[in-house]
Amino acid sequence: MKIIAITNNRGGVGKTFITLHLAWYGQSIGDKVFVIDADTDQANAVMWATGLKIKDPDSSKVYYGYDDLPIAWTMGEKVSVNEKYNGTIFVDGRPQIILSGQLFQADVVVIPIEGILSVVNAKAVIDTMKEYPEAKKMVIVMNKTQKQNKIFQSTYLMAKTLGCDLFPVKLPFNKQVYWSEKNGKPVWVSRAKGVKPFLRQFKRLYDFLMEY
Fold first, then answer.
1. Angstrom distance (rounded) from CA 61 to CA 199
2. Which end of the chain is more exposed for a tag (fewer CB within 10 A), N or C?
């Protein structure tokens, strides 16, 4: 079993989007995957994956999204994962919850960043993770767009200084992300122009994390 945590203190950096799309890709190639929504405030991953507007998700229940993707929500307690899902577990949430010893022991921690403020938050996340020796490896995933090229080099240097790897990836535009959230499906199954390359993007990232 491998646990990959996707986390950042800052909202809107792509945590839930990356979590679900990595899991959807893994499921599409026949790997056993399981998603845990560790966002105790909103349960966004559960609602995104299932298309349900769940005000009070049941932490004892396993929900199913597109292509029968299994996903559970937690308020902070340890989630029991059936042997049926004993493959790769993707966890979406805040670092203090994900990395606490009573909840998970992450093998890889993925820190998405979007813009200069989330770079600052990434450093804070890394500082937090140093308190939890269970987290073995850290990867900063940067949405590398044209306007962000100026901060790429400084982010690269920060990652190396802090002992992280940096994985640049081009994420979809907002309207494509909104389509995925509205329909509860990965962007590459839509008929919109320009979405097919994102399947290759997540294949690259997924393969990198599986071998990491």
1. 30
2. N
